[in-house]
Amino acid sequence: MQEFDKSISFDGRDIRLKLGLLAPQAGGAVLIQSQDTAVLVTATTTKGREGIDFLPLTVDYEERLYAAGRIPGGFLRREGRPPERAILISRLIDRPLRPLFPNWWRKDIQIIATTLSMDEEVPPDVLAVTGSSIAVIQAGIPFYGPMAAVRVGLIGDDFIINPTYREVENGDLDLVVAGSPDGVVMVEAGANTLPEQDIIEAIDFGYEAVRDLIGAQYDIMEELGMEIGKAEPPSTNEVLEKFIEKQAADSIKKVLVQYDLSKADRDTALDNIKETAIEEAISELSEEDPIKVATTEDPKAVGNLYKGLTKKLMRSQIISEGIRVDGRKLDEVRPIACRVGLMPPRVHGSALFTRGLTQVFSLATLGTPGDAQDLGDDLHPEDEKRYLHHYNFPPFSMGETKPLRSPGRREIGHGALAERAILPVLPPQEEFPYVVRVVSEVVSSNGSTSMGSVCGSTLALMDAGVPIIKPVSGAAMGLIREGKEVRILTDIQGIEDFLGDMDFKVAGTDSGITALQMDMKITGLTMDIVAKAIQQALPARLHILDKMLATIAQPRRDLSPFAPRLLTMKIDPEQIGLVIGPGGKTIKSITEQTGSKIDIADDGTVTIAAIQARKAEKARDLIFNMTRKLKEGEVYLGRVTRIIPIGAFVEVLPGKEGMIHISQLAERRVGKVEEEVAVGDEVVVKVREIDNKGRLNLTRLGIHPDEAAAVRRTF
């Protein structure tokens, strides 16, 4: 296509779109730019793979350090595996796109967003989300769009659209809203404990801006004569569908109303229906029967239709009777159990949170400032993380077997959500200088493990003695929509997530919301439904919180005896080199003497960590004495380091030497220095003079016995 360039004036900031400039062989490509941040987004579809029964969508977000004028580190000097934040942005693009493709589409779709230039003002993520919609439309892929996304910030009492990094950092809200013409399709948020109504207003404010961007995409389509891709869905075998419904519907209904069945028993019963009632009936048919011919040509057809029938019946039961597969009411939370301190104190804090069959074991570790995660390998301004939340989802949690791999996108995403939920309640660094890591091990899964991680992690932090401002709980809300009938479900379990239309995770304290994440399987929700889901989550969160506080009401007053003890002090930044010493010799010596770990920040903040407080105090005293400014008349206990004919050199503080002239060694006349002192002797000395070059002149004369005794006790 010919090059097309258009600027959209959007909330006081221009968004510039260029089509036809780059990537002519991609199905669709757009360069989307705001200020100095520019992202190339491409969408390409190719012939589908044989035999797949899912939407083969792949979304990748790529960062290049040249975008910020930097050269990668490491031996190869090129980008390696994507940093965690790039993976999270890939998920951010994927989640609003996926429900807008027909679920029957089987051709491969790949979206690649590459940040080519980036300033420290405009984040590239929401640009990439909106750019993906334009690229998909240009590629002619069937799509229920257009779709767009914006970020909403809160500064004071004012919402702002697409805030800068600094505005997000200084504000109380970081909310991303994505939407289609049908409504909101995705929400991702971190908040500084904001009331539900403020969050609802922020989402509504963001969706209004999304509608403006959708309108701009329609204008571009009209200017370029483009249309959104359309395709006919594959025909369904109505005869086979009716046959399966006749054979299995009654049996499935009976299983779905056996509320006392466990998840495993229910799954087994449903599998048996498919394997016996349906397959036996098909086996009795003649080889020429159209139903048998259809199942032979497409072996997966029976399974897919059976799954569709189960989904239809489960949803119908909820819509018509208001009863879920485990017998709960729509707004009822599963039984909850909490335990803390399950592990020995070498694990600094531990907690087990159980909700129904979902079980999360969270373990907390306290570390020193040097344990903070360095974020220098990505493009974003934040340079380190002091709170880390990691989420693991092993196959045994689902009763399955599969090879263990490094954390996937889902694990990284769930860990980031739990991290975001707890960050607002962590104590300030000045009050609690520890780096904190929590690992949530999902040991049993039946829905809402990410919110289980929030609850378990809160309990583990309290067990570890982290003085969090308030405890945080979370609940996952679901949705069943059939025509105009809508039912919102509280605390969804696995089957309701799998066969439902929404997974809306809400986390917060009793004062407000700290994190949100909403994913859809339909093409959009009205704000009324979004608001109702947020409001319905509140009593569930408070109920869960009560159960948690009944287990541990407040953070423990004492840390584990195996947690490091931290002391902090300030030194003159010009003295950092003195403490470190040539080649790190001095700081290494202090570490070896005291068994402490020492971190020094650029501003002169020294953090000393040791398992025993007295060891940390010893290191602090050594550094204090090393960096303190000497004054004339002060008395010290020093050690003789060398002797010359006219006097002796004495180290009064680490790295600080002065000389005692032979005339100042004793009241009497001394013929040779060696008559009074030898190398290695401890001597009490007074600072007689500090000359204009900073040299110390010491004396042993004029020191009162009480002064000598006091200094020996101190040193």
UniProtKB/TrEMBL annotation:
One of its GO terms (molecular function) is RNA binding. Mg(2+) binds at residues 497, 503. One of its GO terms (cellular component) is cytosol. Residues 633-701 form the S1 motif domain. It is an enzyme of class 2 (transferase). SUPFAM superfamilies: Eukaryotic type KH-domain (KH-domain type I) (SSF54791), Nucleic acid-binding proteins (SSF50249), Ribonuclease PH domain 2-like (SSF55666), Ribosomal protein S5 domain 2-like (SSF54211). Pfam families: KH_1, PNPase, RNase_PH, RNase_PH_C, S1. Its EC number is 2.7.7.8. GO terms for biological process: mRNA catabolic process; RNA processing. Keywords: Cytoplasm, Magnesium, Metal-binding, Nucleotidyltransferase, RNA-binding, Transferase. Its cofactor is Mg(2+). It comes from the Bacteria. SMART domains: KH (SM00322), S1 (SM00316). It catalyses: RNA(n+1) + phosphate = RNA(n) + a ribonucleoside 5'-diphosphate. It is found in: Cytoplasm. Involved in mRNA degradation. Catalyzes the phosphorolysis of single-stranded polyribonucleotides processively in the 3'- to 5'-direction. Belongs to the polyribonucleotide nucleotidyltransferase family. HAMAP family: PNPase. This is Polyribonucleotide nucleotidyltransferase. The gene is pnp.
